[in-house]
Amino acid sequence: MKPELHRMQLFAQIVESGSITKAAERLELSKSVVSHHLQALEQHLGVTLLTRTTRRQSLTEAGKGFYQRCAEMNKLMQLAEEEARGSNVELAGTITVTSPHTLMSRLVCPAMCEFIDRHPGIEPRLLANDMRLNLIDKYIDLSVRVGDLPDSSARAVKIGELEQLLCAAPNYLARKGITLPVTEAQLTELDYIANQWEGTKVERRFMVGKDSSLSYRFHSTRVGDSVPTIRMMALAGLGIACLPRLAIEAELSRGALVRLLPGDIGLMAPLWIVHNYGLQMPHRIRAFIDHLKAKADTMAF
Questions:
Q1: Which of 26, 123, 128, 169 is 20 to 30 A from 260 via CA?
Q2: What is the pLDDT of residues 202-223, one digit of tens each?
Q3: Are 265 and 214 in contact (CB under 8 A)?
Q4: Contact, 134 vs 89, CB < 8 A?
Q5: Residue 144 in contact with residue 115, Cβ under 8 Å?
Q6: What is the tens place of the pLDDT at every residue in 129-180?
Q7: Are 207 and 197 in contact (CB under 8 A)?
Q8: Pairwise CA distance, residues 192 & 175, whole Å
Q9: pTM beyond cutoff 0.85
């Protein structure tokens, strides 16, 4: 193998480990050997890939593009190895998945636990985050996302729809002197608790039956960074919120939260598995996508 190919793999490990020291530990090499190979690679390319201080390292612009190619090469090499061993070999390796908090606890984590029970060689990394993390920057294999997807090079598999409800605590409505059902004019005047990704000016489109819809615009005066946080803020009577039904079922059943709109007006958001793999996808990733989709099919969102 050309030494540059080996050094590309080593460079990817340095980036993913976060430092030369940690990369050397994972590769069971001395720090000086790893540093030597990195310097030789940069000399061969004629560019600086990493800027390093005593406290941190960061990719240069050239390093960012080069790392993406190195990561792609590593994925292809791993895929070739898996295919050569055959599909009957036990699935093994790391799977990194991110999703919103509610879906992590109700869907992704239970599905991963079942998957590992069948394939003990799988090493999970589960990242609960309501923000949409960058798959490449965070070294993520799969992202479970809710709602419309922005244009990107990523690929997506739809696995269902998530029902979301506009709700509030009864004591908040009482303080505002509002009785149900709430009118459109009243809704726009209420304090809206937004998820951080929604921004300050929020528009929500609700379906009325199957053929028509209503759009409501809100100005968020309170912001949370996760569904559990927003649920707590709504329960405390800080305003109205649009939350997944499966996250507030208990609160609805005991009357701690109430729906603001009639039952025939609802918001159904598409649920996706997003990834950056093409047709050449590692067996473990494809198998977990299939398992997660099957798990979602059995659930009522």
A1: 128
A2: 888 777 767 777 788 888 889 9
A3: yes
A4: no
A5: no
A6: 988 888 877 789 999 998 877 766 678 999 998 888 999 999 999 999 998 8
A7: no
A8: 15
A9: no
